[in-house]
UniProtKB/TrEMBL annotation:
GO terms of molecular function: nucleotide binding
Record's keyword annotation contains Transmembrane helix: yes
Predominant location: membrane
GO biological process annotation, one example: defense response to virus
Ranges that cross the membrane: 45-68, 74-101, 156-177
Location(s) in or outside the cell: Cell membrane
One Pfam family matching this protein: PycTM
Name of the protein in question: Pycsar effector protein domain-containing protein
Nucleotide-binding in keyword set: yes
């Protein structure tokens, strides 16, 4: 890294930016971080799913919001809180499932096992030429794919978490008002 006041070396016309190993290492690290973020989003979704499911199975109040009898002669606050709890818990479970569902991308690289057959020949040809640019582009393209997948997953994690918050708040309201 240049010192303060020292001129920064620019890439020459004939030179590729990845000829400096720092860029190559950086894009590899970006791929690792994005992949970790995808795994973390799956874990968060699994926690939310497990919590909601355990709550619905173990709680009489939780199970009760799915019975019609609960709504027949209840007061408005109980009806609203029960409906909110039922809708929010189902919403959270569905969003958590959407997080965990496999993702496909129109763009693939050699780093995705499902596309290896279509990329194998290009990879071996680049290896024969010693084409470092090919590797750099593969990591760069893979970072694009992983970024898109992570964003999609986190959008559903956020929705599932918001549904969880509404579920908990609705449950607290039901506990506070009791059988009013």
């Amino acid at each position: 890294m240049p010192e303060i006041g020292e001129p920064v070396r620019l890439v020459q016309e004939h030179e590729e930016p990845f000829s400096d190993g720092k860029y190559f290492e950086h894009i590899k690290k970006v791929n690792e971080i994005f992949y970790d973020q995808i795994k973390i989003s799956d874990q968060k979704a699994a926690y939310i799913f497990t919590f909601i499911l355990a709550f619905l199975i173990s709680s009489t109040e939780g199970r009760g919001v799915f019975t019609i009898e609960r709504y027949r002669e209840a007061v408005l606050i109980n009806i609203c809180a029960s409906a909110a709890l039922a809708l929010a818990s189902v919403f959270s479970i569905i969003c958590a499932i959407f997080v965990i569902l496999p993702r496909r991308s129109a763009k693939t690289t050699t780093l995705f096992w499902g596309a290896w057959d279509s990329h194998r020949q290009g990879f071996t040809e680049a290896a024969k030429r010693g084409d470092l640019g090919y590797l750099f582009r593969e990591y760069l393209d893979n970072a694009d794919v992983l970024s898109r997948i992570a964003r999609d997953k986190y959008r559903f994690v956020t929705l599932a978490f918001r549904g969880l918050v509404v579920t908990v708040l609705s449950y607290v309201v039901l506990l506070m008002v009791g059988n009013a």
